[in-house]
Amino acid sequence: xxxxxxxxxxxxxxxxxxxxxxxxxxxxxxxxxxxxxxxxxxxxxxxxxxxxxxxxxxxxxxxxxxxxxxxxxxxxxxxxxxxxxxxxxxxxxxxxxxxxxxxxxxxxxxxxxxxxxxxxxxxxxxxxxxxxxxxxxxxxxxxxxxxxxxxxxxxxxxxxxxxxxxxxxxxxxxxxxxxxxxxxxxxxxxxxxxxxxxxxxxxxxxxxxxxxxxxxxxxxxxxxxxxxxxxxxxxxxxxxxxxxxxxxxxxx
Length: 252
Prior knowledge:
The chain is an all-alpha fold. It has one domain (about 10-135, about 155-250): Serine Threonine Protein Phosphatase 5, Tetratricopeptide repeat (Alpha Horseshoe), CATH 1.25.40.10. The chain contains 10 helices and no strands.
């Protein structure tokens, strides 16, 4: 689901969250983010005009890894170039040097969400590819076998299915880990801005995507407490009810 109103802390984050959460919480139901990644949004806002090139940023970090500004510039340059994994590393180092930089923590969470979104797309593509490659066997006429005889599985179909399952599982696991990392980044922002309802909303959405329903419920309830008159509150309350119902059905 997508809550109709998110307070704007930064233009790029507002747009990004709309893209990530706009198509719901269904696994593999996320649309393509091509052309609308963080790098594109940073370019649209002119980010990079005062930032060194990627090569320059790398050189500065190599010379002084503990220079917070150098790490921040490197993270920005990497993000603009679409190198999400490397940008996460650089921004994580920066937040280690500047743990109270709320903007950087928000951006770090956004990078993890980008990574999670792409890994989910990878899983969906792998599943579609497997369906395509093994689809022919579904429509062949069944063989008439003697009574009691069994047909051995097609080794090619079996191999393709096994490989596809591995790819889907790996991509899905990577997505879940990225969602959890994004939630951890939001947790740090919550400590810096405990009375900001929007952070609670973002944390709740991310925790829900990671499968951590108790944490999502807690964040959503905190949002309702902080913003009882927000237009999103009735929808959030409904989401809380649904999550509590789902939580009771989970094993263990």
